[in-house]
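Input for the complex:
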Amino acid sequence: MAILFSRCEKEMDCSKEVVIWNYFDHEHVVGTHYKYYNKCNIVAEKDDWTLVERFYRLPIIGLKTSSYGFMYMENPNLIRSLQFGKIGLVLDQTIHLTDIGPDRCLVATEYRLKAPFFFKLLAPLWKRITDRWFINTWDEDAPMRLRRQKVWNLGFRDFVGIDYVNQKKPQPDGIPSNRPYPVQLPVPKTKGRKDGEYERPFATSVEVGYPKPEQA
Amino acid sequence: MDELKRLADLAELEPHGQFSKWIEGHDILVYRLDGEIKAMSNICRHFGGPIGYHKMKDGVFTCLWHCYQFSAKDGACLTNPKLASRPYKVEVREGAIWVQLVENPGGT
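Predicted:
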């Protein structure tokens, strides 16, 4: 048995609780990451663990495949995900989260692929794939996390929105910029989608992008 | 009735016929539908995603994050009828797009 190892880390301008929300929000993979994931099936989920089947395409080699992933909170600063692939490979992923300031954290991800011994030969390719995967998904998750933190700090509530927007009222004075972000697991799901299955509505899109920032 | 706020130049609607922009704690999606310029909140009431990230298709916006869909006609949420997007009154004058952020000024 060979263990192929890869590590990536980056800083993020949001609280680590927002990052935890992002990892446990499984529905978003077919939305935010629609270019890679085409389907996701939440098989079972309770409290701080979940079993999810995901269907996706690997970068660089373009292989379409799927895996079952078991994800749980090892402790408030560590997410662990074990993904079981179709051909007997097991990916053991740990996500270490460290607060480094108000609404700022460090995310360090380690990948350990347990594979037959001959996979040692594929170590350089494996590292390229995981590095690319991390960069691509990070680049798509980062604005999601920042926006989530921003709307949260404006008073956003899930399945409600922002009260002063909905009610067409003036923005209240003195909205605290450090509104606590509680970790609520499992993340609330969209009702009416059958059997926990989520499919992307389209594979290609004309992307207009995130909103432009406010002018000074 | 609160005053209109200048959001953007009219030219910002090109090349996609839509754009979104933050102004004073509002994220506003402006778009052209059947020749009319309209605006709605760009903040999906599900989890806060950007409704106008993708270009409108067949009169429907699909939020990037979780694929909630909204009618461009009136902001109705097609995924969950309880989560309609708030429309904004919009005016075009002097080559710019103006929006009304507040319609209940007495509120707090």
